[in-house]
Amino acid sequence: MTTYGSKRIVTGAHYGLRDWMAQRATALLMALFTIVLLAQVLFTSQPLGYDLWAGIFSKQWMKFLTFALIVSLAYHAWVGVRDIWMDYVKPVGVRLALHVFTLVWLTGCAGWAIQVLWRL
């Protein structure tokens, strides 16, 4: 039996499938949140202002949905930006620094957003 080419050892098979599915699931949650929020704004008789926004986000189920959106958005962004760093930044040290910066930035943004949400 003759074999051609080099024997390639494949590691991490299906690694990208989990991230691809996470991107789709988080995008679906963000779309659902957008539809729910638009419905509440469009189908109200109140004038658009602080009282309407505070009323929408004061409900416990909306706070939960918004919290889920913030976490989903942070994870969605992490997967996308991490893939960009892995594909286009070749020096390992620079890539690691960018990964750490991205994680710190996204964690800070998510923490700030949650703080704003819980202040309502």
UniProtKB/TrEMBL annotation:
<dbReference type="InterPro" id="IPR000701">
    <property type="entry name" value="SuccDH_FuR_B_TM-su"/>
</dbReference>
<keyword id="KW-1133">Transmembrane helix</keyword>
<feature type="transmembrane region" description="Helical">
    <location>
        <begin position="96"/>
        <end position="118"/>
    </location>
</feature>
<dbReference type="GO" id="GO:0006099">
    <property type="term" value="P:tricarboxylic acid cycle"/>
</dbReference>
<dbReference type="GO" id="GO:0046872">
    <property type="term" value="F:metal ion binding"/>
</dbReference>
<comment type="function">
    <text>Membrane-anchoring subunit of succinate dehydrogenase (SDH).</text>
</comment>
<dbReference type="InterPro" id="IPR014312">
    <property type="entry name" value="Succ_DH_anchor"/>
</dbReference>
<keyword id="KW-0349">Heme</keyword>
<keyword id="KW-0812">Transmembrane</keyword>
<dbReference type="GO" id="GO:0020037">
    <property type="term" value="F:heme binding"/>
</dbReference>
<dbReference type="GO" id="GO:0017004">
    <property type="term" value="P:cytochrome complex assembly"/>
</dbReference>
<keyword id="KW-0472">Membrane</keyword>
<keyword id="KW-0249">Electron transport</keyword>
<keyword id="KW-0408">Iron</keyword>
<dbReference type="GO" id="GO:0005886">
    <property type="term" value="C:plasma membrane"/>
</dbReference>
<keyword id="KW-0816">Tricarboxylic acid cycle</keyword>
<comment type="pathway">
    <text>Carbohydrate metabolism; tricarboxylic acid cycle.</text>
</comment>
<keyword id="KW-0997">Cell inner membrane</keyword>
<keyword id="KW-0479">Metal-binding</keyword>
<keyword id="KW-0813">Transport</keyword>
<feature type="transmembrane region" description="Helical">
    <location>
        <begin position="64"/>
        <end position="81"/>
    </location>
</feature>
<keyword id="KW-1003">Cell membrane</keyword>
<protein>
    <recommendedName>
        <fullName>Succinate dehydrogenase hydrophobic membrane anchor subunit</fullName>
    </recommendedName>
</protein>
<feature type="binding site">
    <location>
        <position position="88"/>
    </location>
    <ligand>
        <name>a ubiquinone</name>
    </ligand>
</feature>
<dbReference type="Pfam" id="PF01127">
    <property type="entry name" value="Sdh_cyt"/>
</dbReference>
<feature type="transmembrane region" description="Helical">
    <location>
        <begin position="25"/>
        <end position="43"/>
    </location>
</feature>
<feature type="binding site" description="axial binding residue">
    <location>
        <position position="76"/>
    </location>
    <ligand>
        <name>heme</name>
    </ligand>
</feature>
<dbReference type="InterPro" id="IPR034804">
    <property type="entry name" value="SQR/QFR_C/D"/>
</dbReference>
<dbReference type="GO" id="GO:0009055">
    <property type="term" value="F:electron transfer activity"/>
</dbReference>
